[in-house]
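re: that chain from earlier
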Amino acid sequence: MAAKERKFQLRLKQRLIAVGVILLAVVLAFFLGTLRGGSQSAPKITSDLLGQQLREVSDLVSVEYHYTNMGKFENTLDFYGWEVPFTTKSFIVSYDGVIRAGVDLSQARVEISGSTITVTLPETEILSNEVEEGSLEVYDETHNIFNPISIEDYAGFTADQKQSIEQKAVENGLLTAGQERAESTVREFLSLMPGMEAYTIEVKTEAA
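^ sequence. v structure.
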């Protein structure tokens, strides 16, 4: 009877050891899989990788300048330097618009030296200047049969006014605000990427 009990206990111990080995193998396999998964979620930091990420956030680094403009157009037919009487046409136009300025991040340069990442951005530039749909209003429009107002008059006058407004926006610091916004956004964006805690991030704008 004692011999049977010893055999039974020996078999039980062997089975327990086998189960323990299997459980240990499962735990090790799970742990190694977790490590591999973690390494895949944090890719190696390279200049190409960072450049690709920056190109995907271009819309986040733009600034907008909203404005309302009113101007007067006037034109008289000219005959060899002499203004022809009763041929003056004119109108006053007002409209709302928005100027969008930003940085082309596809042109950004990324350099990695040791633990320092340096991003050099191109200069901020005006990306668009659009009149808001439905805001255009015309006042005091003349109807001169000798020199009628045309669609080209409205288009040309508005284009000339846009250049003047863009210059005013630049003088009021639009490009400077765009530059500061771009540098700040790029710095914050890169700092959130996995693995960036080991690096110092420097962002600057290329000198003109």
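The first strand starts at residue 63 and ends at 75.
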